[in-house]
Amino acid sequence: MQVALKIWRYDSSSGERALREYEVDAPEEATLLDCLDLVKDRVDGTLAYRKSCRMMICGSCGMRLDGAAVLACKVRMYDMAEAGHVPTISAMGNLPIVKDLVVDMAPFWQKFKAMKPYLQPGYERPEDDREYRIAQERMNVVHKEALCINCGCCVSECNAMESDPEFLGPQALAKGMRFVGDPRDGATVERLEEYSGEHGIWECTRCFFCNERCPKGVDPRDAIAKLGAEAIRNGIDRDMGAKHAKWFVRSSETTGWLRETELVPKTQGVVSSVKQMKFAMGLIAHNKAGLAFPPHVARDVNEARNLHKLVREQDRTGALGHVQGEKALARLGHGYQPGRDPFGPGSFRRPYLPGEDGDAPAAAGGDMGMGSRAQADVTPGEEPTRRRGAES
Amino acid sequence: MSAVEAGKRVAYYKGCLASLSAKELDTSTQALAPRVGLELVELEAVTCCGAGDIHEAEPDYYLHLNARILAYAEAAGCDTLLTVCNVCTLNLRQANFMLSGDEVLRDRVNRNLGAVGVPPYGGEVEVRHLLWEIAEGEGYEKLKQAAHKGLKGLKVAPFYGCQILRPSKIMGFEDPDRPWSLERIIEACGGQAIDYPAKIKCCGFPIIQAREETALGELIQPVEQAMEAGADVMVTPCPLCHLSLDAWQQKLEAATGRSFGMPILHLSQLVGVAAGLAESELKFKRHIVDPRPALEQLEV
Question: What ipTM was predicted for this assembly?
Answer without folding.
Answer: 0.96
